């Protein structure tokens, strides 16, 4: 199944019709019947109900036992899947996208596959290779949906669909150490991706090194195929225990695919404003990309793993990495937004930003600031 999401994207070049004030009382709602809007209201209210959020998977398993797989599946498709998933087949996704395009909305396809940290599920190379095939087909679908447009398409990528969370945790622990060895530099990983030669990292055992090499190969194949098909990859952020490794992978891909003269960044990283250190990381990474002469693409989100992050911090007796409350998260988002829009204005076309938010005020703020910077 494939998901679509919509976002405001700030790129190089002047807008064709200027920055116009946004309105949220029309748009996609014009395509919806009363029945669909009623379902959306019900589903969103259920998603805000704590018992369902906490016990959702158990309730789904109970539903399958009680109602059977077919009836339970039909119930899900008519409710949650119908609300959040663009389609189960390429044709269903295509129909959904065509509807949205009549309103000037473009898709960002996402394969909703990721590996949970400490998951008990048995996974192996065959599973990750299967996910690779799905990712490559999603790249093709992303391009075919907008074949008539000269602009690139976008696709979201979950790294833990292609590599294990155990490996990401090991690499993240190593990266966080003071004076971490240069053997894990983005340049060295990029060289291993290009050459296909075995990479031996001292903090990993033989099996982990072999898995790392296979993972790098899968990431390289997705990025290579995406570049050939004119599709930009937006690598999703996940848990804080994994993110340093994910950022390392993105940096390695950026060395290869975000060079000057390549048409802007083809591999983007995602920054979660609900983390306390996001502004400093974003500032540091933006300057590092500028010094290296690399194009830099940012997808800015609030974050999706709040409860799990806080629960892990309590369990481990460590500091909560998330912002104190919603208001603090919104202030963080605004700071990151202003920082990135300023960089877009100064370093266009080497710096791009996607404002990936469901928050109306954040989107209004983005268009207002973008218009102000554009007029300077």
UniProtKB/TrEMBL annotation:
It catalyses: L-proline + a quinone = (S)-1-pyrroline-5-carboxylate + a quinol + H(+); trans-4-hydroxy-L-proline + a quinone = (3R,5S)-1-pyrroline-3-hydroxy-5-carboxylate + a quinol + H(+). Residues 198-372 form the Proline dehydrogenase domain. The keyword Electron transport does not apply. Transmembrane segments: none annotated. Its EC number is 1.5.5.2. Pfam families: Pro_dh. GO terms for molecular function: FAD binding; proline dehydrogenase activity. Its cofactor is FAD. Keywords: FAD, Flavoprotein, Oxidoreductase, Proline metabolism. It is an enzyme of class 1 (oxidoreductase). One of its GO terms (biological process) is L-proline catabolic process to L-glutamate. One of its GO terms (cellular component) is mitochondrion. The keyword Oxidoreductase applies. Gene3D superfamilies: 3.20.20.220. Belongs to the proline oxidase family. Converts proline to delta-1-pyrroline-5-carboxylate. This is Proline dehydrogenase. It comes from Sapajus apella (Brown-capped capuchin). The gene is PRODH2.
